[in-house]
Amino acid sequence: MGHRMFSRFSLLLGLAGLILLACTLPTTVTRGPTVVITAPLASPVSLRPADIEATKSAEATALGRPAPTSPWSTPLRPADIEATKSAEATAPGRPAPTSPWSTPLRPADIEATKNAEATALARSAPTPPSQVPTQPQPIPTAPLTASSQAVCLDETCMGDGVRLSYLIVTRPLFIEALTPFVNWKTTQGYRVGVVTVDWLNTRFAGRHLAERMKTGMHTLRRATGLRYVLLVGDTEVRIGDFSVRNVLQSYDLPAPWNVPTGFYTRKDSSRDEATVTDTYFVEDRDWDPQNTGRNPLPLQETNVLGEGRFEAAFFLGRWTVRRPAEIAPIMAKTQAVAPVSQILFTSDRTLSNGAPLGDWCLREPPPSASNPRAPCYGDAMGTVRLRLFESHAPWLRTESLFVDMNDPSQVDQLFNRFATFDGVIVGLYHGAYNCWVSGRLCPMMQTNDRTIRTFSNFHLSNSPLLVADGCYIAAFYAGAEDTVFESLLKAASGPATIAQAPNNYMFLSALRDGAPVGDAFWQSGACYFIWGNPIHLLGDPSVRALRGPGGQ
Q1: Measured between alpha carbons, how far is 206 from 259 in angstroms, rounded to an integer?
Q2: How far apart are CA 455 and CA 435, in angstroms?
Q3: Residue 51 has pLDDT above 80, yes or no
Q4: Helix axes 2-23, 107-124, angle to 10 degrees
Q5: Which of 241, 447, 469, 482 could form a disulfide with 486 if both were Cys (CB 3.0 to 4.6 A apart)?
Q6: Helices (H), 188-318
Q7: Domain coverage including residue 225
Q8: Is there a contact between 28 and 124 (Cβ–Cβ < 8 Å)?
Q9: Residue range 477-486, pLDDT digits in tens
Q10: 466: pLDDT confidence band, cut at 50, 70 and 90?
């Protein structure tokens, strides 16, 4: 008897120890299939309340949730166990125990414990990307409206024979508000598909959400032939801390407007510093083959002011909206875009007075992988303007305005030109997250009569494109407030697309020749790009901003 009592006591302790181990494993939630150990039971036996609550507690702890607060949520004492057994003794075929450990364990008890343990282990253990389910999982989404002319939504975009030219990646919150834009793009000849981040997150493999989004977009590109992608939604990374860890924290999806962005790290940056940008999505290549968690951008170079190159497989833009109502004014400006024949170059004189960085910049061959002369090809005001425009583009009218920011009359002249010029604007001014042109006052600056021109009370002409350089002005992900790019995009008047380009020379050269904004923007990174500011394009990537040589 003593040996049997000790053996059963040891078995109970062993099973309790396994459950405790499962409950203290890492709390990462994976998308692997749940593994449940099954075995035939001698007879169907109902689980006791204690068994059910122990299982709930084990699973809740493994998933990182608080354990249920019920009479069974605290560790059971031997007296509790025996009291439960005695209470159940009235069940048919279950005599009351004659000693604390004399009742044999039921098969149902053992199997329930095994199932709880196996479920907790399956939910806690890391799952290799190859084991992430490739079949669609049920997700909450919003159906297309009856009037939508979209070709497909989510899983139907993976159907045999589906062909797309334009993909919208968004959240269920925005699907209804996007219907007029989808229908308008359809009238323009595009075959438009709509997918949600929620679906991409469950449908495709990846080490984090941005990688699953990227994998899904390129899977759809290869299957459907799509050319353009528009991300519709904002994201938020805590301002002042653009570490890899903090960027990864922005990949949670509770905020219904959150459409996360990607990141990479530079050779010359600290281990924890991330460059946050949608550039991550456009290249169909793993940016972290060594599984470092840092996305060290491939093909990085260490030339002066340059850092690498990439090959875009599709052309991407973003509308940084948080409310459905913010879509309509952006759509209205986009629908009004037509290629223009005028371009304005303007700069703070302390940054450029219009002269090239050196006469040699006017003689350099065009940029290439073997000739990445960064100082020249980042110089839009001098090198690019003089080599590609002025007398070299007779089909366009080129203007220039270089401003002494200490002269209020010149500042007023600049803002008056912004208010009336309806061509492409290329601007180089100091900036911060929520101000551009001047750091003296934000969001814009003070004029001669000491009134402050802001994004809400200053009229901007409906330019098809603003190419703006300035520190942090494009960082749409920075904090909860709108940055300069976001404010200009959402304003009722002003530019329909806004760019901070990889390579000004190649970008403006392609625009001059009539290429769509997205094509020109992303192809300009094929040789090499400049790291001075992250690469961002807000707006519809398929619009054309400048007339080409043939007037198109």
Answers
A1: 16
A2: 10
A3: no
A4: 30
A5: 482
A6: 197-203, 209-224, 244-249, 279-282
A7: 141-298
A8: yes
A9: 988 888 888 9
A10: very high
Residue 134: inside a domain: no
Contact, 464 vs 545, CB < 8 A?
yes
The full DSSP string for 223-264 is HH---EEEEESB--B-TT--BHHHHHHTT---STTB---EEE
User: Looking at residue 204, what DSSP letter applies?
Assistant: S
The count of domains in the chain is 3
CB atoms within 10 A of CB 222: 11
- Crossing angle for the helix pair 107-124 and 49-62, nearest 10 degrees? 10
Contacts of 93 (CB under 8 A, 6+ apart): none
* Residue 51, token pair as written in the block: 């068994």
User: In this structure, how many other beta carbons lie within 10 angstroms of the beta carbon of residue 452?
Assistant: 13
* Residues 363 and 507 both lie in one domain: yes
- Tell me: do 169 and 27 sit in the same domain: no
Q: What is the C-alpha separation between 235 and 320, in angstroms, rounded?
A: 8
Backbone angles phi, psi at 342, to 5 degrees: -135, 150
The C-alpha atoms of residue 233 and residue 261 are separated, in whole angstroms, by: 10
How many other C-beta atoms are found inside a 10 Å radius of the C-beta of residue 40? Answer: 6
Closest CA to 504 of 428, 453, 404, 430: 428
Instruction: Return d(Cα 198, Cα 154) in angstroms, integer.
Output: 9
Does residue 484 form part of some domain? Answer: yes
Q: Which two tokens stand for residue 130?
A: 């190859």
Best CA proximity match to 521, nearest among 509, 431, 369:
509
pLDDT the model gives residue 432: 78
pTM to 2 decimals? 0.73
Torsion angle, CA of 320/324/327/328, rounded to 10 degrees? -160
Q: Which two tokens stand for residue 122?
A: 């399956």
Question: H/E element holding 347?
Answer: strand 342-348
Tokens of 500: 């901070």
Instruction: Give yes or no: residues 116 and 206 share one domain.
Output: no
Last residue in a domain, options 275, 298, 321:
298
Rounded to whole angstroms, the Cα distance separating 484 from 470 reads: 10
Residue 29 within any structural domain of the chain: yes
CATH number, residue 381 = 3.40.50
